[in-house]
Amino acid sequence: MAFNHLPAGAHDALTPLSVTPVTHSVPMANDQLPPEAGVHPAPRTVLDRLTTGADRAARITHTEHLPPRPGRHAPWPEKIRPEVVEAVRAAGIERPWAHQALTAEHALRGESVVVATGTASGKSLAYLAPVLSALLDGSEAPNGRGATALYLAPTKALAADQRRAVKALAEPLGKGVRPAVYDGDTPVEEREWVRQYANYALTNPDMLHRSILPAHPKWSSFLRALRYVVIDECHTYRGVFGSHVAQVLRRLRRVCARYGADPVFLLASATSSDPATAAGRLTGVPVVEITDDASPRGELVFALWEPPLTELHGERGAPVRRTATAESAELLTDLVVQGVRTVAFVRSRRGAELIALIAQERLAAVNRSLPGRVAAYRGGYLPEERRSIERALHSGELLGLSATTALELGVDVAGLDAVLLTGYPGTRASLWQQAGRAGRTGRGALAVLIARDDPLDTYLVHHPEALFRQPVESTVLDPDNPYVLAPHLCAAAAELPLTEADLSLFGPETPGLLAQLEARKLLRRRGAAWHWTRRERAADLTDIRGGGGRPVQVVEEGTGRLLGTVDAGAAHTSVHEGAVHLHQGRTYLVRRLDLEDSVALVEQADPPYSTTARDTTAVSILETSAEIPWGEARLCFGSVEVTNQVVSFLRRRLITGEVLGESKLDLPPRTLRTRAVWWTVTEDQLEEARIAPEALGGALHAAEHASIGMLPLFATCDRWDIGGVSVPLHPDTLLPTVFVYDGHPGGAGFAERAFHTAAGWLTATREAIAACECDTGCPSCVQSPKCGNGNDPLDKRAAIRLLARLLKDAPKDG
Questions:
Q1: Cα Rg for the chain, rounded, in angstroms?
Q2: Where is the Helicase C-terminal domain (predicted)?
Q3: Among 35, 194, 767, 782, which is disulfide-ready with 702 (CB 3.0 to 4.6 Å)?
Q4: How many angstroms separate the CA atoms of 251 and 277, rounded?
Q5: Phi and psi (nearest 5°) for 355?
């Protein structure tokens, strides 16, 4: 029997809510309102209020205090146009910070540069100053078009937000700067104006891939004059998505060269390890890095918060900790009551909806006007819904927001006092990015990391040095992934026939892939060039977000109203027939999932339960690329094929998590060719570790779960990017084997990172299991919220012995 642990989309990330009565830190009469948002209490005062009463203080495992830091100024480079300097001064900025001036200097010299400094350090101005100067220079050209610039953001909301900022800053510059957003929400009649007249186009990699590059002749005047390409939040381009964007940027450089342009890349990133290397891998050009943050910083109080154990028991009798979702909703309620402007970040769309819903219900008991001051913000909303929430947040109408990373990368929020992180966001870079959303005008701020009941979160709140004493991660991406590269070669050939001169641009795997694409009759060689042969659009061959197909539309059956979308990869587990679906605080039941038309039909309902999908998974080894002996054990890395099928779903009571029943599903299996790390042990090693045959399955399964939970500490992934399978006797190795694989076709670089850091990764895994205070295994150590086998069997103590024996012979640099 194989025990599996699936990547993103496999199961709902939420464990059942355990709701306890809310105890407000600041009691209020029903007719009272919170203080006005202009009042900004000190972060320590806010934290003291949150920990008043009940057992709140005991939930804080560590408090980190980051003192305020003064700023360091520098003069603008001489080549910055005086009109730009005056416009910046009119906006209230007398002099730039040193890193802003240095970034502009490199840009003006024609050097691609990445500025990797903290949140709210003024990265936008660092690249806007040289861009605006170039656009003003160009406006004096005879044709009036002159230089152009392209801005790329990972989300539509961020591009729209940047346009507002650019428009405000450039207003004194007159018609010399003409910014315009070009995305899927841009009306057709406006798109022609953008192509013909805008000189600063703000878009996203998806539109560049699907719309701009395939139609490059229509963009020829813009691309011919392209001076700068701004890539904002570039640390988000990691894994498969980052690999796709890397190839889109190579296609952009190739088309620009066709029109005689060689743009300079200006990248902005959260703090990361070795940002120049990551930026160079993303763009394919040498990049200079600026990492010395010269901006001032207000005081930050950062608390680590562990929800308490409840009297409930979960699967196999394991103790159940109060969910981070319920805890975050309660804290958000208290903060709104205090008038503290707060955003609560949460990993899943469902979690964002639940936190807002619970907070609204509790606030209604305090004052009937308060529920309207809290909202949810996530991907999948319709454009008008997103814009409305963004306006309310900017105006201060909203005091509290529960949001996915769509907000982390979406809106430049000012004036927040506190940030709640509902679970570790997956990387230290994201942790600091989210925490930096509060106190963005230099005031003090409070950040609270609320641990989920899983191995990594539990480990981190009890090992604060892993968060506060370690550097942020490096960005992992693999542009040479053949599953990524092949469709982009087709798209490039459709844009302009590929020649021998293009091979080095797209990487060393290109010649071999061109031969395969010829054999599949996707490309045809004529003379010295390869041509696209099909009538359909080559750009439609791939979804650069790695979703594996077109999104599934969620439609209300009775009215035909489109509620939103769900990624294709998540459809089998989140909108299967009978699934509970949340949207803007309303609950729906999925009546039918039509995979052929990519539509899920739902109707509004109020079931007293949540749903969780269950599945089966098998892994077969296709190729072993690397193998290291650990004594008799073997650590391996290579290509695998994963076959997964969702077979049923559970209905769980909302409050207690009690299983109400299981329903079978008839969904087709899905296969995934990807990269994996795996390890094997021998009978002699099992005997030395005192693991009996009947305990072997539980030991392997527990070690697999815990190792998946700990991998984000060593690679820029989260547990939803990866999956795993453990088998007491695998048919390919003929030994007990544990696999951890990338949840994306062709791999994302995470399993490879695990292979190269295996000794540290598995040591931390063993320590995390051993340190947990439970007796037989719980969600804090070896149970997984997305286990397709219902966390059965699991043997915590045998897993500790197994990992200790495995690590005994691990090479010290392994």
A1: 27
A2: 331-483
A3: 782
A4: 20
A5: -60, -45
